[in-house]
């Protein structure tokens, strides 16, 4: 039985925590902008994958179980480190699974690795939603619905969701690591990091996946048209509508796992 191993990859920017399992085909999991440990967040999907598939779940710096950054840095430097971590796994095929903001990193990463074999996006962030969000009624309603919730209400909603879909042990670890990470953060620093990210994203405006690359995008129904015109579209894109919240992959891990296995 192949087991996962946790490692710390030391760099001049900080120490990246990775959870890894070797394989000729490796599935790279990229988290969103939350403080969740990446392996924890994708655990319901990962446990449904065959053991011969390699796994690489990377925590970003300042997130999950990775260290805080040692110095200010550009997004380009972070991407270079992530590419190096992926390539050191010596996999023959790399499939990237990215949630939310992880999609922004997936594009330049896929552009730089020779063995990129496919992409699965779980509501990956589009440039449209960042810089020119739709004024359609459903988007406004969803935004208002989110903003009407207090932080406490939002956390209770998510905790109910994980309690339902995670094993008891993994649910405990998810929130233990989340609150451990949360203690390190300051609102000022997090706001500055978000600003720097927004400024850096424009440097990758022209990057797209290779036209022949298979791409599967999972999204809530109201965003289907947005993804149909997004930077994640290739000649082999499939769009699947699931759920009614941004963390729908917690509710539908089997559907996600089936597409990963199909692409692998």
UniProtKB/TrEMBL annotation:
Pfam families: Abhydrolase_6
Species of the source: Liquorilactobacillus hordei DSM 19519
GO cellular component terms, A-Z: membrane
UniProt name for this protein: AB hydrolase-1 domain-containing protein
InterPro entries on file: AB_hydrolase_1, AB_hydrolase_fold, AB_hydrolase_sf
Location of the AB hydrolase-1 domain: 27-258
């Amino acid at each position: 039985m192949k087991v996962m191993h946790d490692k710390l990859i030391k760099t001049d920017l900080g120490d990246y925590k990775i959870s890894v399992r070797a394989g000729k085909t490796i599935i790279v999991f990229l988290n969103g902008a939350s403080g969740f440990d990446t392996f924890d967040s994708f655990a319901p999907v990962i446990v449904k994958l065959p053991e011969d598939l390699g796994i690489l779940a990377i925590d970003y710096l300042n997130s999950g179980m990775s260290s805080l950054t040692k110095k200010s840095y550009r997004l380009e430097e972070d991407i270079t480190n992530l590419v190096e971590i992926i390539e050191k796994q010596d996999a023959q095929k790399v499939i990237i699974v990215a949630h939310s903001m992880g999609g922004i990193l997936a594009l330049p990463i896929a552009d730089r690795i020779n063995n990129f074999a496919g992409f699965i996006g779980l509501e990956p962030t589009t440039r449209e939603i960042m810089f020119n969000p739709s004024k359609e009624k459903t988007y406004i309603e969803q935004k208002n619905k989110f903003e009407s919730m207090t932080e406490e209400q939002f956390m209770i909603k998510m905790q109910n969701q994980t309690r339902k879909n995670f094993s008891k042990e993994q649910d405990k670890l998810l929130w233990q690591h989340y609150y451990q990470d949360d203690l390190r953060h300051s609102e000022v620093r997090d706001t500055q990091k978000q600003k720097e990210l927004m400024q850096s994203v424009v440097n990758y405006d022209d990057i797209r996946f290779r036209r022949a690359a298979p791409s599967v995008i999972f999204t809530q129904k109201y965003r289907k048209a947005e993804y149909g015109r997004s930077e994640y579209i290739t000649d082999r894109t499939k769009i699947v509508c699931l759920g009614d919240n941004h963390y729908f992959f917690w509710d539908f891990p089997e559907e996600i796992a089936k597409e990963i296995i199909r692409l692998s």
